[in-house]
């Protein structure tokens, strides 16, 4: 396995201040994430809203500085031209060169495109910023043709396109500097199902053509199963399970992973459903130790929800049971989960 990126104990904590500006708590958006991204493959990151997926992407791009931990770059990225392999130690000029090698596709294509710019200017913007202005027009046309658009679209504005076409423009712009990695932050969640399939097939074709590495962030497990070679499940800033996609879907170990998989829409009417009871706990960790710990005992709200479904043959897990921090253990070759060993 050839690694292109490695995340080592990556943490990002946002301070919560009181009225006097004193830190009283921390939001642990990332809390000790360890991942290895394999070159030329698609690595999926899945979890519910607020679990830390997008913060992980922003920290990976150093759009926000990590609180601690490291993003370690391979020689494929550095080319032995950087002073350090640790992302957080790069100079501003090295960081600029690093960002040439990572393209980003955002969730909302309309929000990612300047409504006052023509498509030719939007797609050529990365080239102009990095001084690659030779034959810009022909390069922009080539990029648009790669994503199924053409020269006739150069002098149009974003509002003149459908959602799927706008996402194609975002992908074309992300490819402008010939990156080695594409970070895809829920690239199909704002699109119709039929358009989703077109975009996913386009991404697969581009990966084969340019030998790209994808980091695919989503909450849609059916999309993740179709696209990803390997997958990490996140909950409250931590990776709770990591495995090859086929292994994780066929043999989930963590109760949260099992609940997520059971919630995937299916034509199988006999498929077992697992309900997650209770409210999502706050990610705020108070500096006052008397308030610091997340509740690991069952709450009154969870007791009420359990009593409402008792006797109906419904499997469930409660949120409070997920709050206990259990070390990541190896289940089998390449399969890790936060579960108690028997």
TrEMBL record:
UniProt domain ABC transporter: residue ranges: 5-261
Keyword annotations of the record: ATP-binding, Nucleotide-binding, Transport
Any one Gene Ontology BP term: peptide transport
InterPro entries, sorted: AAA+_ATPase (IPR003593), ABC_transp_ATP-bind (IPR050319), ABC_transporter-like_ATP-bd (IPR003439), ABC_transporter-like_CS (IPR017871), Oligopep_ABC_C (IPR013563), P-loop_NTPase (IPR027417)
Stretches assigned to coiled coil: none
Pfam families: ABC_tran (PF00005), oligo_HPY (PF08352)
Keyword ATP-binding in record: yes
Gene3D superfamilies given in the database record: P-loop containing nucleotide triphosphate hydrolases (3.40.50.300)
GO molecular-function terms, A-Z: ATP binding; ATP hydrolysis activity
Annotated NCBIfam families: oligo_HPY
Protein name: ABC transporter domain-containing protein
Organism: Marine Group III euryarchaeote CG-Epi1
């Amino acid at each position: 396995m050839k690694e292109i990126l490695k995340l080592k104990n990556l943490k990002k904590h946002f301070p919560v201040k009181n009225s006097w500006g004193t830190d009283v708590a921390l939001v642990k958006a990332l809390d000790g994430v360890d991942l290895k991204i394999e070159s030329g493959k698609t690595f999926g990151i899945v979890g519910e809203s607020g679990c830390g997926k997008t913060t992980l992407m922003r920290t990976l791009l150093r759009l926000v500085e990590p609180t601690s931990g490291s993003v370690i770059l391979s020689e494929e990225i550095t080319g032995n031209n950087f002073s350090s392999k640790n992302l957080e130690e790069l100079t501003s000029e090295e960081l600029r060169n690093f960002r040439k090698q990572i393209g980003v596709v955002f969730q909302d294509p309309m929000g990612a495109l300047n409504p006052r710019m023509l498509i030719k200017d939007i797609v050529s913007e990365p080239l102009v910023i990095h001084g690659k202005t030779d034959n810009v027009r022909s390069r922009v046309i080539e990029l648009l043709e790669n994503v199924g658009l053409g020269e006739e679209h150069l002098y149009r504005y974003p509002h003149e396109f459908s959602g799927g076409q706008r996402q194609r423009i975002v992908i074309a712009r992300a490819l402008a500097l010939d990156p080695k990695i594409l970070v895809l932050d829920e690239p199909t969640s704002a699109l119709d199902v039929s358009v989703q399939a077109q975009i996913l097939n386009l991404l697969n074709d581009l990966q084969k053509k340019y030998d790209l590495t994808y980091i695919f962030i989503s909450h849609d497990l059916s999309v993740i199963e179709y696209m990803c070679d390997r997958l990490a499940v996140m909950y409250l800033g931590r990776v709770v399970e990591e495995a090859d996609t086929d292994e994780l879907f066929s043999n989930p170990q963590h109760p949260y992973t099992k609940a997520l998989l059971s919630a995937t829409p299916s034509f199988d009417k006999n498929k077992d459903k697992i309900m997650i009871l209770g409210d999502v706990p706050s990610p705020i960790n108070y500096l006052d130790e008397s308030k610091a710990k997340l509740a690991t005992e069952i709450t009154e709200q969870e007791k009420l929800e359990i009593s409402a479904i008792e006797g109906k043959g419904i499997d469930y897990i409660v949120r409070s049971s997920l709050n206990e921090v259990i070390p990541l253990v190896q289940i089998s070759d390449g399969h890790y989960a936060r579960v108690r060993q028997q």
